[in-house]
Amino acid sequence: MSEVTGQGNTILMDEAAVERAIIRISHEIIERNKGLENVTLIGIQRRGVSIAKKIRDYLESIENAKVPMGILDITFYRDDLSRLAAHPVVNGTHIPFDVNDSKIILVDDVLYTGRTIRSAIDNIFDMGRPSCIQLVELIDRGHRQLPFKADYVGKNVPTSEKESIEVQFEDVDGVTQVMLIKEGI
Question: 3-182 in CATH: which number?
Answer without folding.
Answer: 3.40.50.2020
